[in-house]
Automatic annotation (TrEMBL):
ATP binds at residue 43. Belongs to the protein kinase superfamily. GO terms for cellular component: plasma membrane. GO terms for biological process: cell surface receptor signaling pathway. InterPro entries: Kinase-like_dom_sf (IPR011009), Prot_kinase_dom (IPR000719), Protein_kinase_ATP_BS (IPR017441), Ser-Thr/Tyr_kinase_cat_dom (IPR001245), Ser/Thr_kinase_AS (IPR008271), WAK-like (IPR045274). SUPFAM superfamilies: Protein kinase-like (PK-like). PANTHER family: WALL-ASSOCIATED RECEPTOR KINASE-LIKE 21, WALL-ASSOCIATED RECEPTOR PROTEIN KINASE FAMILY PROTEIN-RELATED. Keywords: ATP-binding, Kinase, Nucleotide-binding, Serine/threonine-protein kinase, Transferase. GO terms for molecular function: ATP binding; protein serine/threonine kinase activity. Residues 15-281 form the Protein kinase domain. The keyword Kinase applies. This is Protein kinase domain-containing protein.
Amino acid sequence: MNITLQELQKATNNFDVSYEVGGGGHGVVYKGLLNLQVVAIKKSKIIVQREIDDFINEVAILSQVNHRNVVKLLGCCLETEVPLLVYEYITNGTLAHHLHVEGPISLPWDDRLRIAFEISKALAYLHSAASTPILHRDIKSSNILLDDNLVAKVSDFGASKYIPMDQTGVTTAVQGTFGYLDPMYYYTSRLTNKSDVFSFGVLLVELITRRKPFAYRSDDGEGLVSHLTSLLAEGRLVEIIDPQIMEEGAEQVNEVAALAVKCTKLNGEDRPTMREVEMTLENLRGTNRRDATTSRRNYDRDQSAVSYWSSLELNIETSRQYTMEVEMVLSATLPR
């Protein structure tokens, strides 16, 4: 749906600063009221060809996608040099915010396991059920939005790629986020569906540890994935697991950790497909019969209302540019 600039100016009081709900160096997200519907409007600050290409790419991708766990693109405005994108407004912020909130209480284990399952369903759909296979290329906790019921919505398709039906991947410039990036893609520029699997595996590690993949270093200098892999092999997983999960008596933590290790194998061919990951998580959820009412109540009580978009945050986590220094860090922290 094409939306006029005048309509968006009216919806945001001419993009007044009081309507801003997220953003960073690349752009701003505004909350607005459009045709009696609350929407999120993504507006770029930077007028460069890459930004234009990313916005157009996102329109092309999301116009072909219809899945309950993928954020809905409602329309765009083509009257500006960089298109303005209009999405459904997701009220509960990002998964990153909920995981890394200050204090000991985060999302209950039951919700974390369900959110992981929902993300896996969305990625399996993008890889195999969409009209043309789509690789997201930037899966991370800050690109997962949560609605009022904490239902996951995959967002930010600016870096995504179509893959021809008769091909298993494409050779392309490296994009993604340090900490979540598939090392084989980084070294070879060969993007496949297993690149998303790697990023999802890192996200699983983040869900069970509440550690930030792009910032974590063990005492021995290992990155988050490498350290968890070592601890799992040594039977010492409890040393890195989020204490809240242990206090809840959460089941299936070892199985989820083992799945994360499989997803983050260095060789992409050794990783499962997202459909296989989805089926594994579905089976794990089926065995998780614990009543999560109490832990959800504790979490809800400890949370203040969150109502913002942060998919455009600009910090070390969201950088898609790589240097020789980063390559050295990757080389030092990823198993070979």
